[in-house]
Each structure stands twice: as structure tokens, then as C-alpha cells.
Enoyl-CoA hydratase (Rhodococcus rhodochrous KG-21), 280 residues
Amino acid sequence: MARTGTDDSIVLERHGEIAVVRLNRPDRLNAFTDAMCYRLIEIFDETDTDDEVRAVVLTGTGRAFCAGADLAAGGDTFVLGEDPATGGAPADTGGQVTLRIYRSLKPVIAAINGPAAGVGVTMTLPADIRIASDTAKFGFVFTRRGLVPEACSTWFLPRAVGISTAVEWAVGGKMVPATEALERGLVRELVPADQVSARAIEIARELVSGTAPVSAALTRRLMWQMLGASSPEVAHRAESVGIYVRGVSDDVREGVAAFLEKRAPEFSDRVSDGLPDLFE
């Protein structure tokens, strides 16, 4: 395992081809700050351009995943200045993080090792797979703080658990136990707290083993963008472009040859060289 980065509130570790991004303020239950927001965005920029990274695991240090926004400023925590560019409302920091994760070119697994509230849970919604500790709790607590949901969660949450559950959890603002989160589809599986990171890394490796990095990146993008498509015809067109441009690639020749020769493929196309635009 290799550790990189200089901001100790977010730790970036490498476990072979898997990058592990760890929220690292355990004395504050990993409460979220603006500095953490900007560092997370930087890290996802780094993992996107590093061809040695095939997938990203997002987790927390200590007994919590993330307690939500750091409330050190008390009642003024959510008093924000105007956006200097527009003179209007600034982009919420949680939304900036979730959009960056949404745009990731590598699969993302959220390993929720303990309680997750506010932005601590909404930042996990653009992850492709979420697993959690059997002691985790989840809180979309915004109405109990006089706020509204943030971090694009009114788009992501209904797509993950359905509109009825999303409204129930977001309007009521109650803490949701891990078993209910599993039953409603927020998380895929529950494991003991000391096994969450290891299990997430295992899932990440299963996800990328034997797959072409460029094809994996394009497939992830297709899946997420088609959630908002107006009709299956949009998907048909994008997939047709994808088959057309990837069909002549070295990766396809290698993938077919490896299959016929009954060996593991060695794909050469790199994500860092850029992806074709499938959404003409």
C-alpha cells in the first residue's frame, strides 16, 4: 500500500490498481469542510489521469464515514457569500463533489464504514456501488437543520431508492439504520466494520479485472447519462456510435484474440488519451 498527498484531512492510498480515498478527520467524525471539498475534486482529477488506477474506493477513517458539514461556526455555518461571478447563490460544495464523482472516468465504490449524515451520505450517491458497515446509520437530516437537500441528492436519491423512500427519508430527516438502507436499495451489502475497506477493494478488483479501461469508462458514462435520457432511442444512438468507434480499436482486436486463444487480454488503449464523444 502506498500513500500519497499532503492534505491530511483527505488521504489517498494505493492498493495496486485500486485508489482508496479516505476522509481523515476521525476526531471530528470526518466532518466535511471546504478544504476537503476542493481536495476531493483534485484527487478525482488525479485518479482520472492516472492510467495505473482502475477504480476508486471512497471511505472514512475511524468509527464514522462522515458526520456531515463541520458545524464549528455554529448557526453561521451555512451563511454563504454571493458568487462573485454571478452575484447570486454560490454552488454548494457538496454538489461540486458529487458532480466530480459523477464525472469520474473510473468506477467508484463507497465503503461506508460508519454513520453518514448530511453531505456525508449525499456524497456517496454518485458512487456506482455502495457497501456499508452493519453498524452504519444514514441521515438525510436537512429539514431538521432548517435546510433543504444538497449535493444533487434530489436527482440521485430517487433514482437509487425510488421517489417514495426518497421523500420519506429526506422530508422526515430520520436516521436510517443499516438494515433499512439495505432493504430499500441504498447499499448493496452489509459487512462488519473492520471488513468494509477490504471488501470494497475486493469488489473494485472484481469490477475491473479483465476489462478494457476505455470501454469501462465509456460504459460507466453511458449508464449514468442514460438515467436522464428522454427515450431509449437516445441510448440506441449513443451505443451505436460507441460500437462504431470502438469496433476498430486495438482493444477490440486484442479482446477477441484473447477470447479465441483462451488467455487473459492485455488492453493497450489508455483513458488518459481521451475518450470518444458518444453523444453527438
In short: The mean pLDDT is 94.
